TrEMBL record:
CDD domains on file: GH31_glucosidase_II_MalA, GH31_N
Gene3D superfamilies to which the protein is assigned, alphabetical: 2.60.40.4040, Glycosidases (3.20.20.80), glycosyl hydrolase (family 31) (2.60.40.1760)
Family annotation (InterPro entries): Gal_mutarotase_sf_dom, GH, Glyco_hydro_31_AS, Glyco_hydro_31_C, Glyco_hydro_31_N_dom, Glyco_hydro_31_TIM
Source organism of this protein record: Eshraghiella crossota DSM 2876
EC numbers for this chain: 3.2.1.-
Name by which UniProt lists this protein: Glycosyl hydrolase, family 31
UniProt KW keywords: Glycosidase, Hydrolase
PANTHER family for the chain: ALPHA-GLUCOSIDASE, HETEROGLYCAN GLUCOSIDASE 1
Domain Glycosyl hydrolase family 31 C-terminal: 524-609
Family to which this protein belongs: Belongs to the glycosyl hydrolase 31 family.
Length: 655
């Protein structure tokens, strides 16, 4: 059962696409405040809270507070309450089991046992929102019901399951060629190379630097001939520059966000002074979306949308004010307090709350302050692109993923988890984010493999890869100034070759399970507590995941560790892969095990009454053939598997 409540005048977010009659009285486990701005529920000692998609900390969100407020934050430490996404859905699994979705595009506060361990409190900035309470037989049933009402998730093309290499930035066509050569010469499979901001002419969206990438169209097709897709970045803000047509058109048509007085709100991002397209306005979406055609016409078939929280380096007004205030420090001996104030002035320029309060949208004909609808911005930018793709490329799947997101955007694109770091804890973090993002509809997901910030050591990159090789988006991306992170730059190229080749061998299974989770509203990454609800031990396991219906993984995510404890909720068959061809198959009993895992090894655990399979070694997804498989299962087990190759196409295979 799903109960829908509406308070005040909710914004039309289009997150939920099914309509429901409104209900008046809330279930008795939820207590609503008089002003409707917050509600609480009691938590049993062993209750688990799953959800909130892309956020820090564990799979179980209990014991901290989170704020839905899409934020450009490059340091994902466990004290952060907001990352780039606003995924306001969670499920309480315990004495009462139910799901809650708060459809409000401004700030939403989730106090999950932070103030009081036994109470959850959700507060909303204003009493204009929709609230959905989802009840069902168990957690999985509740998730399915929720996913049904938010509509089918985006389906990525199969090539986007190939390995993808990125860096901020490959500056020229020759540099890209060198990267591709590095992979092809070393026989490490690859399908895509990313173009970060420097491919553009002065960071202007939908332009290509003639100097760095002469004859871009030919270059794209040269890469296609080598089975490489080029994936350019698109940033939300548009450079303010006379003569730049996107700026000129947008300004002439009043398509940019306005300040209080109705003038264009001027901010700054990579290109310097920039304007924010008002993606909440449908006309602006139609206009901006069609701009992607310029790159599509040159052969591009994948994009990543960035800086769309939106990130603001400063606003013109705030910069001016800050400059004035700084004057008072000139020639002064600063006391400690003054030094801090001085530093705060400059540091406070970026993503300043006062700036988010100072610009406006034309949302369904109404002037709306950005702060009230902040979390829709990246979603509506990405929606603009995806809706245009349906017109430009009606018969093709275009790869699209975004940094900022809100539930609803899952129908248009995937997400990556932004600027993580080359930290061991970030291997663990993505393991926690995967199932929670899936719950909220985001199925094409992944983290920057090896970490974006900081320098990745070889062992970290290997262990990171050993988890990423199961995620739909398997992209290695690193920040400007960090150690080169391409696999062939490291000493043990062979191990990376084996890992990526194994990934390609698993694509038939992974893509099929991905399609199934989209089609049937299930999870591709399932916590053991949800997959085995009767097993109490499983409720507390956060470092093992079911991947699809047939296998479980237990990655190593600690440095200098060559083994780990693994809990098997049932008898399973363990495959120890050293490469696609070199592996041992070991039957294991239900229960606790300590298992050695060398740096170059990957463990896959096959469920008792299922089989796993891998395809042949290939160099790109263009060589994928769904016909020759190696099967893995318990001795004597014979079974059938429905292999999905398209969302509406499947065949039955037998071991
Ligand atoms: C942002 C993105 C990152 C990108 C960089 C430069 O930090 O999150 O992925 O490399 O901008 O475009």
């Amino acid at each position: 059962m799903i109960f829908k409540y509406a308070f005040g005048r909710p914004f039309k977010t289009d997150a939920v696409i099914k309509s429901f009659p409104l209900v008046n009285s809330l279930p008795d486990y939820i207590e609503m405040s008089q002003d409707k701005k917050s509600f609480t529920a009691k938590l049993g000692v062993d209750d688990i809270i799953y959800g909130l998609g892309e956020s820090v900390r564990g799979i179980n969100k209990r014991g901290f507070r989170y704020i839905s407020n899409c934020t450009d934050d490059f340091s994902h430490t466990e004290d952060k309450s907001s990352l780039y996404a606003a995924h306001n859905f969670f499920v309480v699994d315990g004495e009462e089991t139910y799901g809650i979705y708060v459809d409000f595009p401004g700030k939403v506060y989730f106090d999950f046992g932070y103030t009081d361990l036994d109470t959850l409190t959700v507060s909303v900035e204003e009493a204009n929102y929709e609230l959905y309470v989802v009840e069902g037989d168990n957690v999985m049933d509740i998730i399915k019901k929720f996913r049904e009402i938010i509509g089918q998730s985006y389906v990525a093309p199969k090539w986007a399951f190939g390995y993808q290499q990125s860096r901020w930035s490959y500056n020229t066509a020759d540099e890209v060629r060198e990267i591709v050569r590095g992979y092809r010469d070393n026989h490490i499979p690859i399908d895509a190379v990313y173009l970060d901001i420097d491919y553009m002419d002065n960071y202007k969206d939908f332009t290509v630097s003639e100097k760095a990438f002469p004859d871009f169209k030919n270059f794209v097709s040269e890469m296609k001939d080598n089975n490489i897709h080029l994936v350019p970045i698109i940033d939300a803000a548009v450079k303010k520059e006379r003569g730049y047509d996107v700026y000129e058109e947008g300004a002439a048509k009043d398509y940019f966000c306005k300040d209080e007085d109705g003038n264009d709100f001027v901010t700054a991002v990579w290109p310097g002074k920039s304007l924010l397209p008002d993606f909440l306005n449908e006309k602006v979406r139609d206009w901006f979306g069609m701009k992607y055609k310029r790159l599509i016409d040159m052969g591009i078939d994948g994009f990543w949308n960035d800086m769309n929280e939106p990130a603001l380096f400063y606003s013109e007004k705030n910069l001016k004010k800050t400059m004035e205030e700084l004057k008072k420090y000139v020639g002064k001996d600063l006391s400690l307090q003054e030094l801090w104030d001085f530093k705060d002035l400059v540091n406070g320029l970026a993503n300043s709350p006062s700036d988010y309060r100072s610009f406006y949208h034309n949302f369904n004909g109404e002037k709306v302050c950005h702060e009230r609808v902040h979390n829709l911005y990246g979603y509506f930018m990405t929606r603009a692109a995806a809706e245009a793709f349906r017109i430009i490329e009606p018969d093709k799947k275009v790869l699209m993923f975004s940094r900022a997101s809100y539930i609803g955007m899952h129908r248009y694109a995937g997400i990556w988890t932004g600027d993580n770091s080359s930290w061991w804890s970030h291997i663990e973090l993505i393991m926690h984010q995967l199932p929670n993002m899936n719950m909220c509809g985001f199925m094409y997901v992944g983290a920057d493999t090896g970490g974006f910030n900081n320098n990745a050591t070889e062992d970290l990159l290997m262990r990171f890869t050993e988890l990423s090789m199961f995620t739909p988006l398997m992209r290695n991306h690193a920040a400007l100034g960090t150690r080169p992170q391409e696999f062939f730059r490291y000493k043990n190229i062979k191990t990376f070759r084996n890992l990526v080749t194994l990934r390609y061998g698993m694509i038939p299974y992974l893509y099929s399970e991905y399609l199934k989770s989209v089609k049937f509203n299930t999870l591709m990454f399932t916590p053991l507590g949800i997959a085995f609800p009767e097993d109490r031990i499983c409720r507390h396991i956060e470092d093992q995941l079911m991947v699809g219906e047939n296998i479980m993984i237990a990655p190593v995510y600690k440095q200098n560790t060559f083994g780990r404890y693994v809990y098997l909720p049932e008898d399973m068959t363990m495959i120890r892969f050293r490469s696609l061809e070199d592996r041992d198959v070991v039957p294991l009993r239900k229960g606790h095990h300590y298992i050695n895992v060398a740096l170059h090894e990957v463990l896959v655990f096959v469920r008792k009454d299922k089989f796993f399979f891998t395809g042949k070694a290939i160099q790109s997804t263009a060589e994928l053939e769904n016909n020759e498989y190696t099967f893995y299962c318990a001795d004597g087990y014979k079974g059938e598997y429905e292999l999905f190759t398209e969302i509406y196409k499947s065949e039955r295979i037998h071991n």
